Amino acid sequence: MSGERPTPRSERGQLGPAIEASQVKAYLQAHPEFLIEHPDLVEVLSPPGRDNGENVHDLQQFMLRRLGGEVRRMKAQQRQLVDAARANHAAQAQVHKAALAILEARSFEHLIHIVTTDLSQILEVDAVTICVEASLEAPPVRAKTAGVYMLEPHGVDSRIGQGREVMLANDVPADPVVFGPAAGLVRSQALARLHCSRRSPAGLLALGARDAGKFNPEQGTEMLVFLAGLLGRAIRGWLSLPG
Asked: Is the pTM of this model over 0.90?
């Protein structure tokens, strides 16, 4: 109707003073990731087509390429997270099964058999051994139990580091003192300190795998520390050792 008052620009969605095109251009130049961080704007922008002359950049194709690359990057990250979560879940299930096997031991000898024989299958490794340090007064001797090996005094610290609980290594030759005859197969290893008793010598739980990438220093160690802690307590209980 001819009597209607024109709607002011501020009522048509214009908030505050008008923004010049040069200001928009300057802002986008200073924030090149703006359209990637706000992909919803692509739906309302009207970029030029592909036939605007040799000197006109195709903003639409540029944005699509950038957004496509961002989507591929995010999908790759998502796949990595899913794979890592699945691997972590599988490792937790293996450790829980190993823990139950340790708790089912009927004697100390049966416990050692479970650890040095059954755990290799449960944890999908090629060798599991227990190592115990010899005393300073007596040289190391060959252990009478299969899968149990004697280390020299301070042998635990020399292999995993003083004050450390776990050492993971990949693509390395195995120590025959730790893995015995299986050392020739082992190409990656996980060593965890055993805390059995304040009156017992230091010990190690050693896992070895022929897969050079089975263990590596970037992996988490919480599950291995848990398993070694449980084994130390089981040994203490069967041998009636003090804490």
From this structure: no
